[in-house]
From TrEMBL, chain B:
The entry's keywords: Cell membrane, Membrane, Transmembrane, Transmembrane helix, Transport
GO biological process annotation, one example: alkanesulfonate transmembrane transport
Name of the protein: Putative ABC transporter permease protein
Compartmental location: Cell membrane
Amino acid sequence: MATELHGQIGPVEKETPAEIPADGPADGPADAPAGPDAPAAVRVHGLTRTFDGRAVIDRLELTVRPGEFVALLGHSGCGKSTLLRILAGLDREIEGEVLVPRTKAVAFQSPRLMPWKRVWRNVLLGLPGRPGRAVAERALAEVGLGHRSTAWPKTLSGGEAQRASLARALVREPDLLLLDEPFGALDALTRIKAQQLVAELWQRRGCAVLLVTHDVEEALLLADRVLVMDHGVIAYEREIGLDRPRDISDPRFAELRAELLDRLGVVAPTAAPTAAPTTATAASPAASPRKAA
Amino acid sequence: MSPVLEPVVPLSARRRTVPRWLRRTTGPLVLLIAWQVCSATGVLSPDTLASPGTIARTASDLIGDGTLPHAMLVSVQRVLVGLLIGAVAGVSLALVSGLSRLGEDLVDATVQMLRTIPWVGMIPLFIIWLGIGEAPKIALISLGVTFHLYLNVYAGIRGVDAQLIEAGTSLGLGRWGLIRHVVLPGALPGAMTGLRYSLATAWLALVFGETINADDGIGFLLNRAREFFQTDVIVVCLIVYAALGLLADFIVRTLERLLLQWRPSFTGK
């Protein structure tokens, strides 16, 4: 199921025709193994975004396959949210080439529902044509919010509001779903449920997902591929071959978690220098790369 | 040694001997009785202030012979026309300067400058320009209303959450869609505040306008009563002003309840 790449988000001042660069992606760690002709849901080539002369995104390369779930990790301020906003078409002060599907949807960290519209009207907001309420009801039922469709957004709990925001994104039947730390503001229990919901919805819909997060475990639970962004480029990427549904207690999970934390410059607790020698020798293999490093 | 425990008394167990409404009416009632007593014993001369009893009788006479209803009709009409003109002007100006940068540059500075002129001070100019008929009164009311509505609607538009506008953009709303679904509803609370202020201003402008030159309306009754030292009529007119103001406030609050029902309201429990 190839996703057609429609919209090119060009730099504001010049409109270039939507075409895939002929020279192919430059070599870099971020490039998917597929060539330039392979189907893609996102194709980014040489993307640069500067704020007051400082390049937050610096000649970034990125390809996302159709239906692929990609998680983008990075420190706050590393430009991962900026990248998402560029892909969403919300930030156009860019240089380089960005190809994204025409139908894309965003769920932000805060649900950003219009407080003056009932939930079902929020879901339909901006949809082309005049879709009936049943369309909204279906999408809300899919996220388990069918009973709240006539509620005012401000009466929803945090988790409910976030699910309404997801329904609003999914009702557009996007080829690309952009999630900007959508679980960041939720409490721990609600977050687990919301993550499971996103995993289910993604498997049912089969759309490509780009999840921006700073939660390594969340990335490992959900993504096919995890990217680490640093200094304006994709500094590291890792295919996650774990079977779904994933289990946090799986030793391979812990191994990947330690590896990614290491890439993010965080010292894993098991490898902390204060650990007693006996525990250090008995430590899981996940801790050893840290010691070697 | 264990601490001494004392029960947390549930709120419902606190007995209310006197109902709240009764307690609240006591104050005004005592004042009214004192007033009547002062009038009856001659402490308060009728030339200073008529007794509540006389005022009630005068009010029923004025209503009975049709003087008061007619005067009220004329006054309310002035307020409504003035309010309408002021609302159209204020909201249009606010939309122009709120929704476009060019409009802001052209309109906002001008309105902000004019706003500093106390509108009551405009009365002599209005009389010179518009004569002493209905026009200067309505102009005065419109002026007061325009500025209040302008300021609040403009602030409301500019105060709309940028995150919501971005969300609207990401949902595919165009410029008009954003204005209709995001900006205008978001500016509504501000607009309602402006409406409330402007209604209060409208009544104030009415009183000013009518006491200066009037041949009709409540202000005319008020002025004529002053000439004959009819303090009872004066008090009746003041009560009518107050009642009409209360009514206007009630209408705005009802409107707010209908239009802003999405806002979780603070009930003041």
